[in-house]
Amino acid sequence: MGFPVGYAEVFFPNPFLHTLALLGLLRNLVFFLFHFLGLSDFLESEVAWPEPAAGTRTADAARTPSVSAVLIRELLPVAKFSDLDSRKNRENSCAVCLFEFSEEEEIRCMRNCKHIFHRSCVDRWIDHDQKTCPLCRTPFVPDDMVDDYNQRLWAASGVTEFYADYTSSF
């Protein structure tokens, strides 16, 4: 099965496809010549993207971890790989980057599922607002700590007064 060999020819005739290829070649040649002559500043090769709308994450906002990410990092302990107990049953490599652990590397041990990862690998995962283990999808926050985590998250949001007014109306 699959597409026929000449499937593109059904929608676009061959002369049209060849013309597009020739135009692309000419464009690349002009760019090369301008770059070779030192005139590449006159070409606008960068695409002018519109500014992101209000409320969307920008590159700067993506670099700073969210409040939930900071709270999850506080819940997950950091240790040296050499300090782990039960040396015979532990994992030998990080499931995120697939590199083996060295004795002096900092790792994070998940509280619920006991998987271990390089600190930097799982921190990047957490910074993308992931709240589950990258390997088994078990939640980072243990069941007995969910209420405390939610209260700290709510307090960090800065809208505690609104919550107090909302609950007092019942």
Chart the SSEs and their pairings.
Elements: H1 8-11, H2 14-36, H3 59-63, H4 67-75, E1 78-80, E2 106-109, E3 116-118, H5 119-127, H6 146-157, H7 160-168
Antiparallel strand pairs: 1-2, 2-3
Helix pairs in contact: 4-6
What does this structure look like?
This protein has 170 residues and is mainly α. The protein has helices at residues 8-11, 14-36, 59-63, 67-75, 119-127, 146-157, 160-168, and strands at residues 78-80, 106-109, 116-118. A hairpin with a 6-residue loop joins strand 2 (106-109) and strand 3 (116-118). The mean pLDDT is 76.
Give the helices and strands as they follow along the chain: HHHHEEEHHH
Query: What proportion strand?
Result: 5-15%
Q: Output the strand order for the largest sheet.
A: 1-2-3
Helicity level: 40-55%
Unreliable parts: none
Tell me the Rg in angstroms: 27 Å
Largest sheet: 3 strands, antiparallel
Categorize the overall geometry. Answer: elongated
Q: What is the average of the pLDDT values?
A: 76
